[in-house]
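During the reporting period, we have paired protein sequences with backbone structure tokens. One record among many follows, to show the layout:
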Amino acid sequence: MSDKILVGGMPMPGRPERIVKAIFLTVICAVVVLPFVGVISTSLATPEQVIKAGGFVMLPTHGFDLSAYKSILSGGTVTQALLVSAFITAVGTTLALFLTCTLGWALSRRGTFGNKPLLLLVLISLLFNPGLIPTYLVVQQFGLLNSLWAVILPISVSAFNVIVVRAYFVGLPGEVLDSARIDGASEWKLFWHIGLPLSKAVVAVVGLFYGVGYWNSFFGALLYLNDASKWPLQLVLRTYVVDGVEIGAQDLGGASEALPPQTSIQMAILMISIIPILCVYPFVQRHFAKGVLTGAVKG
């Protein structure tokens, strides 16, 4: 007779298996967390410690120094890019949510005019990408080059997100919708006063997807924006951190005092680009299982 305890009909792993799993998970966590700790430490370390360590500090031992953050937020290129990214993310996410939810609602109402052909087009767009050159030509023909709308509009509707939202709308209780129709509610009122309030989970998750996508987008800006004053933060991050372009006083609001080491400034820019998503994610995480999995199963 086996001496293993059964949980849910399955034997529990023995002590050696649990130890191996614990070690494996600890190593994975260390690989993920340690570089992040190094980035934070380097951005907060004193200039002397950064120079002594050769550019990368794992743990600051002589206190914290916020001079790198003060330099990049005192005006100049990084501050302007931060404002541009905030505008693109706020406007783009709002527009994308509106278009996705309205399209998902229309596709969820079976029997409406053009429902099946439009749904087929959405499904086909999941399989076939228009490509880089056709997309660029469309943006050019609409006169959007060197405009922030060139970064916002081309990715304002995701077919995957439309399918998830549609599947969630299909699963709404039909009795509630029929009762509202009997009381004289229009389709817009059904969507605005019943559909959206009952779908907060999927709207929150899809909103996070769009928000992260807009905040992290840099390739569209690289293609369509020629004016450096319109660059989002991720493109500035690519220029100063990935390409290694040196940051001068003219890029930091013309600060006359001595600048922190380049590595500290680069790590501070990297942290500024990460912090907004880290602040938003915990508030939406609890909706993931209910929002995405429910939509996927019912779709």
Summary: The chain has a mean pLDDT of 83. Strands lie at 6-7, 10-11. The chain has two domains: 6-65, 71-298.
